[in-house]
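Study this fold:
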Amino acid sequence: MCWHKFARYWDVEIREIPMEPGRLFMGPEQMLEAVDENTIGVVPTFGVTYTGNYEFPEPLQDALDKLQKTKGLDIDIHVDAASGGFLAPFCAPDIPWDFRLPRVKSISASGHKYGLAPLGCGWVVWRDKEALPEELIFNVDYLGGQVGTFAINFSRPAGQVISQYYEFMRLGREGYTKVQQAAYRVAQYIAREIEPLGPYEFICAGEEKGGIPAVCFRIREGEDPGYSLYDLSERLRLTGWQVPAFALSGKASDITVMRVMCRRGFEMDLAALFIRDFKAGIEFFKSHPSPKITPSMGTGFHHT
């Protein structure tokens, strides 16, 4: 949503790479088809909201390097690491997704997701001062001192920033590593437990080098277990679990997936209870066959 707002506010043409069956991420080939001499940047999502998988910037950079050699187009990368930015540095440090890649000029990350800070804390960092144009910074003479601001709004609460600083100081690199590794262990446990329970195809199984601590799966094509993932989501909601089932986007909109997110606070004891209720839901459908909830009907969950 933030990118659509940016494109509308600044009158920028946004070119999204649609998902399609067998390819649920932006690959180099699709990226090259979308860029031209007017492209101001490429934005891989390092932790895709729909699936939990990483879009790896390195293959995109390699393709852009070749493009510059052949056509002279010099296009940089912004990494949208809203989720992965506070995960990969601790659990998959060997993945080159950050400023180790020369074309990566800026990175955004959400402190309130896996940064463990309160809601509303977000970060953006640039490779160097040259990567942030001076004309975008407003220097304000405020109460006798110079204040440089890049934000659209001026006055903002500092509580989230202080909380983030507290977590940095309290946990440190070692603490963050332990917290995030625990989340991955929970996700992998859930994936192992769910796999034999139905004809499921896993898109994300909570692997550190592949994505965030999430479990995303679909019912295998051609299989009919007697219920839909919408049914299962609705059944889980009756026992207190909000586990969304939803259709993917683009050309993959006929694929319905279920996604389980794991983070601090969702520990092994809760995961075991979740699996218990998951199994109970499946047993319910076996003994109570009924018409399946369709994608157009969705589930009873909403945000209002």
